[in-house]
Amino acid sequence: KMDDDDDIPQLSSHTLAALQEFYLEQQQREGMKTSQGFNQYSIGSIEEDWQLSQFWYSDETASCLAKEAVLAAGKGGRIACISAPSVYQKLKEQDGEDFSVCILEYDRRFSVYGEEFIFYDYNHPLDLPENLLPHSFDIVIADPPYLSEECLQKTAETIKYLTKGKILLCTGAVMEEQAAKHLAVKMCKFIPKHSRNLANEFRCYVNYASGLD
Description:
By secondary structure, the chain is α/β, with parallel strands linked by helices. It is built from 5 helices and 7 strands. One of its GO terms (biological process) is methylation.
């Protein structure tokens, strides 16, 4: 009888070790979540899902963008985060600050945030709840999930509908011309970093005098 084991792909010891480490880290993270004092809004409380083309910012970048949003929104300002959940989570960590924030996101895991969560599919840019009034946000931060003109153009419809004027867009450097065309935004000096390095160079674009230059 043939040896059945021959058909089973063997994982190298290196891969196995990496997998074990990954599962261990995951367990530790889960453990941290359930332990005392876990902040449900903190970055990492919802893992990024690459199948939804989600890539979280590094902690530093998320903080920097959140700070910029609060300054740009002003006292009592309203901030909308479109497909930028790590900025939203950073904003939520700043409890007691004088602003309000909504998250428009395709990933329904974010519904844990209650009424601040608005299910959003860029394919239907204006399919928004009635209580989201036009031009009711002091600043809109958006990070379209795909680097395509179609995705940017549709997200741009939502951004223009929601913002009173200020726009902070994060997308690939390759999208500079399209960003200018659809949203009249210009590239800033600030370079956003992701918690995992992405192949595409990312940049921030704004249409107002920001602190990101």
